[in-house]
Amino acid sequence: MPHAFATSVLHITTGTTETITDLTAECEQFLTRNAASGDGLLNIFVPHATAGIAILETGSGSDDDLLATLHTLLPADSRWQHRHGSPGHGRDHVLPALVPPHATLPVIGGRLELGTWQSVCLVDTNVDNSDRQVRLSFLGQ
């Protein structure tokens, strides 16, 4: 029987380079354990000031395109008021305004309702902190 509410925390190591990490399989495994064949919502939340959650196609270059776009919009230079950490680290603190730290997605019949090419991804441009947590929460019936 599915739970009305279930939550779990993923521990992700992103490394020392800017990354986009596909979390879709982890989300599906969480739903298998907690949603059974129920309907509801999956909330994905990253409690960090320098990371976000994006829904995008991966593996065809779109993930690299997103990182390139973020480099254009948020250059790693000395323009930022927030100056601790690596040069340009202030831009990492602006990232969540463009790539929010959360996403809420429909779950139908216990399965994540994504489009054919959509994946749930952690976007992390902060090379100073490679240890990330991602909270998955299912609310449904």
UniProtKB/TrEMBL annotation:
Family recorded in the similarity comment: Belongs to the UPF0047 family.
User: Which InterPro entries does the protein's record reference?
Assistant: UPF0047_YjbQ-like (IPR001602), YjbQ-like_sf (IPR035917)
Where does the chain cross the membrane? none
Recorded hits in Gene3D superfamilies, A to Z, give: YjbQ-like
Q: Which PANTHER family match?
A: UNCHARACTERIZED PROTEIN YJBQ-RELATED, UPF0047 PROTEIN C4A8.02C
This chain belongs to the protein called Secondary thiamine-phosphate synthase enzyme YjbQ
Q: Which domain of life is it from?
A: Bacteria
